[in-house]
C-alpha cells in the first residue's frame, strides 16, 4: 500500500489517529487524516468532562462531528473512554456509593448507547492501576466508593449497551513485561476471562520517551496478553525523538504488532507534531508542515 491505513488493511489491521474536533476545519489536517488513516479516536471529545459536564446533561456535538467525519470517510471509530479518573467532572467526585454506581452505569449506557453499532472498540476503563512496583489499583473515586468490583461492572454494563463493540481495558506503562503494573493488568484480564466477565481487548497506550523507551520485551507483552484470548491494540502511540533513532523505535513497535496475530491495529496519538499533547517532544509521524518524517517511512516500510 501507499498509505498507512491501506497498508495496514492489507495485513488485516487498522492504522488510526487521535483527532481533535477543532482541527477538522484545517485543510492540511483533514487531507492527511483522510488519506493516511482508516481509524479515528476522539482525542478528548468522548471523555466524561466533555460529554456529561453536569449530571444527566449530555453533550454529544463535538463527538458526533468526529464520528460523522470518520464514518463518512469509511473509517472505523475507537471509543475513548467510558470510565477514567482523569478529565472527570467535579460533580462525580462528590457522589456517594449508590449515586456513583448509578452515575457510572448511566454514563456508560448513554455513551455506548448513542454510538451503538458505530464503534469498533470501546476503552471501557482507562488507567485503573497505580504506577510503580505495587501492582495496586489506583486510588480513584471509583475504587474508593465501589471497591474492586467496579471494573467488571463497567464492562458488563458496556456489553449490554453495545453488544457489537469490542470492549477494551486501556492503560500506559504496561509495555514492559517485567513491570508490576503489566503483571497486575495481566492478572485482572486472566481473571476476567476465567470468570466470563466480558472483555475483548487490551489497549496499550504506548507513550514512549527517553525515560521509558520501547522495551526489548514489548512483543512478549503483546503476545502474552493475546494468549489470554483477547485482542491487543496499540491505542495511543507516540515516541519522543527525531530522525533515524525515532524511526527505528516506530519500526520496532510496528513489527511487534505485525508479529502478533491478535494485535489488530495501531493508533498514533495525533497527526502533526505541533498538535501533539507532548509537542515539545515531536513524537508523531508528520512534522508541522505535514511532511512525512523518517518515522513515517519506517512504519510504512514495515507494514
Ligand atoms: C490527552 C490529550 O491528548 C490532551 O489533549 C488532554 O489535554 C489530556 O489527555 N492517556 C489517555 C489520553 O488515555 O486520553 C490522554 O490524552 C493522554 C494519556
UniProtKB/TrEMBL annotation:
Top EC class of this enzyme: hydrolase
Reactions that this protein is recorded to catalyse: Endohydrolysis of (1->4)-beta-D-xylosidic linkages in xylans
UniProt keyword list: Carbohydrate metabolism, Glycosidase, Hydrolase, Polysaccharide degradation, Signal, Xylan degradation
Active-site residues, as the UniProt record annotates them: 236 (nucleophile)
Residues covered by the GH10 domain: 1-302
Entries under InterPro entries matching the protein: GH (IPR017853), GH10 (IPR044846), GH10_AS (IPR031158), GH10_dom (IPR001000)
E.C. numbers: 3.2.1.8
Domain of life from the UniProt record: Bacteria
The family this protein is said to belong to: Belongs to the glycosyl hydrolase 10 (cellulase F) family.
Protein name: Beta-xylanase
The organism of origin for this protein: Streptomyces zingiberis
